[in-house]
Amino acid sequence: MEQKKLLIITYYWPPAGGPGVQRWLKFVKYLPDFGILPTVYIPENPTYPIVDEALVNEVSDKAIIVKHKIFEPYQLASFFSKNKTKKISSGIIPNKKKQSFLDKTFLWIRGNLFIPDARIFWVKPSVSYLEKYILEHNIDTIVTSGPPHSLHLIGLELKEKLNVKWFADFRDPWTTIGYHKALRLSKYAANKHKALEHKVLNSADTIIVTSKTTKTEFQAITSKPIAVITNGYDTEEVAKQTLDTKFSLAHIGSFLSERNPLILWESLVELLHEIPDFKSHLEIKLIGAVSQEVLETISQYGLNGYVNNLGYVSHTEAIAHQRNSQVLLLIEIDSQDTKSIIPGKLFEYMVSDRPIVAIGPKDSDFAEIITNTNTGVFFDYSEKMKLKSVILDFYNQFLEGKLQVNGIGLQHYSRKNLTKELAKLIQK
């Protein structure tokens, strides 16, 4: 049987690190098993805020990779402050009260001059290049993956020019994503974002989202079909891990300023005062980019002596830490806008056999997943006493050598099963 050709337009691709690359890297790995031959279109010279060379080895040898040059303003902005542009590019935005003049300037430029984002200059050359490529290779179906949401504008133009079947995949929402309000948008810029979002959602043949809440939000904007395909976990070949000897609470991934969980720091300080032995056992493992504000808050609470700040590590090392830490921390911003966010690492956490302590806004989509799979406990930001009680319970189980978790129904979230869902959608 002849395989169906699919063109995937994405910005994040190995050697890019971080969660943004995982979704389509894994879909591409399994799509050939379901009769779909993937061609992946990526930038030739991208500015990735995080690099993980090891991920290059995970790219399917059945995928066709097509590259085209990109111009990015981050390349120029880094002349003034490489560190600031790298952080803004990766979504780490300083707290509004602590923003310097340079922070404010970069954010204003990012939000008002580059709409929808700083990869906008890749749209026209990509459309010109791909228009010929699609015709030459008889491709009739494309997928655009955002953020960056400018890639959906490539899909929009190709749809208008060639009438290809177009799936717009939203790994995160557009105008309701947490950092959108921090971009110091003018009224014109805010309206422009809304207008582009509306046009994309009403022009694509099918919208793919990662959560039920995003689907509900988009249903208010479009009547086009919307499919929910979450992120998931893959079978990782990681050596069996020995559990940490300390009572380690590990946060893996970007720890943004807005995710600063005061109820967690307060709970730990109280337990340190109330339980003498807790001091000799506690370890707070921070793995990934951590905002300065989070580090300052930890210091203000007197918890510095318990912190093991490992910085960014490869995906393989991150998986190992997920399996050797005693407890895994999953923290989302306390906002209505983030109820729809299901962090990609949740699914890897779920198959790590370690209990999850999750903190987020009330009625978060990921709370339901954690509860239904029996992989941890979710708390909203008002539940400090409940959080403290569960940490104490986990600590007592740790002392007895009985701290473990028994997940249920996890197979649904395997990358292969999710790719099967995607393939059915594409082949309709």
What would you note in describing this structure?
The protein starts with a strand and ends with a helix. It has 428 residues and is of the alpha/beta class. α5 (150-162) crosses α6 (187-203) and α8 (262-274) crosses α14 (384-399). It is 39% helix and 16% strand. Residues 76-82 and 84-92 have low confidence and may be disordered. It is globular, with a radius of gyration of 22 Å. It has a seven-stranded parallel β-sheet. The chain has a six-stranded parallel β-sheet with strand order 10-9-8-11-12-13, sandwiched between helices.
Topology:
Layout lengths: L3 E6 L12 H9 L5 E8 L20 E5 L4 H17 L11 H12 L10 H14 L4 E6 L3 H13 L2 E6 L16 H17 L2 E4 L2 H8 L6 E3 L18 E6 L9 H13 L3 H4 E6 L4 H9 L6 E5 L3 H10 L2 E5 L13 H6 L5 E4 L5 H9 L2 E4 L4 H16 L15 H12 L2
Parallel strand pairs: 1-2, 1-4, 2-3, 4-5, 5-6, 6-7, 8-9, 8-11, 9-10, 11-12, 12-13
Question: What share of the residues does DSSP label as strand, in percent?
Answer: 15-25%
Average pLDDT works out at 90
Secondary-structure-derived class: alpha/beta
**What is the tally of beta strands?**
13
**Main pleated sheet:** 7 strands, parallel
- Supply the number of helical segments: 15
The strand order across the widest sheet is 3-2-1-4-5-6-7
The ordered H/E elements are EHEEHHHEHEHEHEEHHEHEHEHEHEHH
- What is the share of helical residues? 25-40%
Terminal residue distance? 16 Å
Q: What radius of gyration results from the CA coordinates? A: 22 Å
Poorly predicted sequence stretches spanning 5 or more consecutive residues: 76-82, 84-92
**What's the overall geometry?**
globular
